[in-house]
Amino acid sequence: MSTAAAFESVTDEFTFVVGPVLATALCTGVHPAAGLLTEAALTLVGGLLFAAQRSTQPAPRAAATTGAPHRSALSVPGVRVLAVTFLGIGAVFGGMQVSLTAFSEEIGRPGVNGLLYGVFAAGNMLAGIACGAIVWKSSPRRRLIVGYVALTLTASGLWAVHSVPLLAGLGLLVGLSIAPALISGYTLVDALVPASARTEAFTWLTGAVALGQAGAVTVAGQLADRHGASTGFVVPLVGTVLALATLLALRSRLARVPRDGWWHVVSVTASRSRWTDRPEYVSMERR
């Protein structure tokens, strides 16, 4: 799961590295609308090709006949914790996107925006490659906490930087910190919920990132317009601080302990699981 999540992160960030450069070249060298039209065409063609392939899709599962009511992935405390913390990652993406643009306009070099965001995305991509290649001995929960600590520390200096080289370097560090947190969170889902609910859990986490990004874009944009680009960079910091505080306060809900050769995910908030009749456990799977 960790390798798969890392691969997804790398391919996602690759588009953020290449996309700004390609869009800038098309808009300035071909036509102002060329970048948008190319993006629309690639999205349409790629989406259709993805929808048409069947070789890697999982086999359909028969509907459960036990009579047990369906439980949402959000009924698992750990998934709710991850969803809240992933809002912080979205705040970083949205805040960086708007604030880097505002910074570039503020210094009179709008063309440098693509370069700065590309460096930020490149850091995320490189960290994703490393996370996928390393055979980890530490737990995903510990890696998640370390990732958020690093993300908070690196984001704390963005508002004080006023030069392109320094902002590019710090943006690279922020990008390097995102992938470990993102990948570790997705890896934890593998143990927090049964297979039948994983797709829903992944969807909640992806939606949390998108929601955090949308909110950050709105807030950072207003701050940058009224008080300058540096205030927009406060949004990623606030988002990561709140996410880290939530994670540290509720980290016990993400814990798992071995028992008789099986892994059980501990729920410290419920005396009985919503996924199984055994007390104290949310899910279990062979490791």
Chain-wise SSE layout:
Blueprint: H1 2-29, H2 34-52, H3 77-106, H4 112-133, H5 140-155, H6 164-192, H7 198-227, H8 229-232, H9 234-250, E1 256-259, E2 262-266, E3 281-286
Antiparallel strand pairs: 1-2, 2-3
Helix pairs in contact: 1-2, 1-4, 1-6, 3-4, 3-6, 3-7, 3-9, 4-6, 5-6, 5-9, 7-9
Task: Give the SSE order as H and E letters.
Answer: HHHHHHHHHEEE
Q: The CATH topology, please?
A: Growth Hormone, Chain: A
Overall average residue pLDDT: 81
Q: Estimate what percentage of residues fall within beta strands.
A: 5-15%
CATH C-level class: Mainly Alpha
Structural class: mainly alpha
Tell me the distance between the termini.
12 Å
Evaluate the radius of gyration: 21 Å
Largest sheet: 3 strands, antiparallel
Q: Mind telling me the CATH superfamily name?
A: MFS general substrate transporter like domains
Strand order of the largest sheet: 1-2-3
Describe what you observe in this structure:
- Residues 78-287 form the Major facilitator superfamily (MFS) profile domain.
- Its main location: membrane.
- This is Major facilitator superfamily (MFS) profile domain-containing protein.
- With 287 residues, the protein is mainly α.
- The protein has one domain (2-32, 73-250): Growth Hormone, Chain: A.
- The chain is 68% helix and 5% strand.
- The protein has 9 helices and 3 strands; from the N terminus they run H-H-H-H-H-H-H-H-H-E-E-E.
- It has helices spanning 2-29, 34-52, 77-106, 112-133, 140-155, 164-192, 198-227, 229-232, 234-250, and strands at 256-259, 262-266, 281-286.
- Strands 1-2-3 form a 3-stranded antiparallel β-sheet, with no helix packed on it.
- Strand 1 and strand 2 (262-266) form a beta hairpin.
